[in-house]
UniProtKB/TrEMBL annotation:
<dbReference type="GO" id="GO:0006367">
    <property type="term" value="P:transcription initiation at RNA polymerase II promoter"/>
</dbReference>
<protein>
    <recommendedName>
        <fullName>Helicase XPB/Ssl2 N-terminal domain-containing protein</fullName>
    </recommendedName>
</protein>
<keyword id="KW-0067">ATP-binding</keyword>
<feature type="compositionally biased region" description="Basic residues">
    <location>
        <begin position="1"/>
        <end position="12"/>
    </location>
</feature>
<dbReference type="Pfam" id="PF13625">
    <property type="entry name" value="Helicase_C_3"/>
</dbReference>
<dbReference type="GO" id="GO:0000112">
    <property type="term" value="C:nucleotide-excision repair factor 3 complex"/>
</dbReference>
<keyword id="KW-0378">Hydrolase</keyword>
<keyword id="KW-0347">Helicase</keyword>
<feature type="region of interest" description="Disordered">
    <location>
        <begin position="1"/>
        <end position="46"/>
    </location>
</feature>
<dbReference type="GO" id="GO:0016787">
    <property type="term" value="F:hydrolase activity"/>
</dbReference>
<dbReference type="GO" id="GO:0043138">
    <property type="term" value="F:3'-5' DNA helicase activity"/>
</dbReference>
<dbReference type="GO" id="GO:0005524">
    <property type="term" value="F:ATP binding"/>
</dbReference>
<dbReference type="GO" id="GO:0005675">
    <property type="term" value="C:transcription factor TFIIH holo complex"/>
</dbReference>
<feature type="compositionally biased region" description="Acidic residues">
    <location>
        <begin position="16"/>
        <end position="26"/>
    </location>
</feature>
<dbReference type="InterPro" id="IPR032830">
    <property type="entry name" value="XPB/Ssl2_N"/>
</dbReference>
<feature type="domain" description="Helicase XPB/Ssl2 N-terminal">
    <location>
        <begin position="72"/>
        <end position="149"/>
    </location>
</feature>
<dbReference type="GO" id="GO:0097550">
    <property type="term" value="C:transcription preinitiation complex"/>
</dbReference>
Length: 156
């Protein structure tokens, strides 16, 4: 049998592209499984802009004395920046993966975002809110903003 003969003997398979009908839940049914705290957003009304239009957190985030040995910046809008060159990077990264969603992870500084869903997931796997706050305060170069601690983490 040559190459031409093999092609003629094979049978072509045809698949039906039938779409399965799934019942889409209506708006009220889909919202029942989502806790109310999961839709909560961080309050950014107190954030001012600098002369270039960038968010200016200098008044809200004061550097700690030993900031050079800490790997995190926790912004009032829920963004967390992790220095990948820190000696405790691996521990901080494991912690952040458990409590936040990754946004951008280039070589030297990784960005994460605290969301109500990520905090809800962290609590559902056994992390306590008091432990989350304690570790953020230990790892942060600056004071952790009150809006993150009291109104976002504690209420979630």
């Amino acid at each position: 049998m040559g190459k031409k003969d093999r092609g003629k003997k094979s049978k072509k398979r045809f698949y039906d592209d039938e779409e399965e009908d799934y019942d889409e839940p209506t708006g009220s049914e889909s919202q029942e499984a989502i806790p109310a705290a999961a839709g909560k957003q961080v309050d950014e009304s107190s954030t001012k802009l600098d002369e270039y239009g960038a968010k200016d957190y200098r008044q809200q985030m004061l550097l700690k004395n030993d900031h050079s040995s800490r790997p995190l910046w926790v912004a009032p809008d829920g963004h967390i920046f992790l220095e990948a060159f820190s000696p405790v990077y691996k521990y901080a990264q494991d912690f952040l993966v458990a409590i936040a969603e990754p946004v951008c992870r280039p070589n030297h500084v990784h960005e994460y975002k605290l969301t109500a869903y990520s905090l809800y997931a962290a609590v559902s796997v056994g992390l306590q809110t008091s432990d989350i706050i304690e570790y953020l305060q230990k790892l942060s170069k600056t004071t952790v903003p009150d809006g993150i601690i009291h109104t976002f983490i504690s209420d979630s």
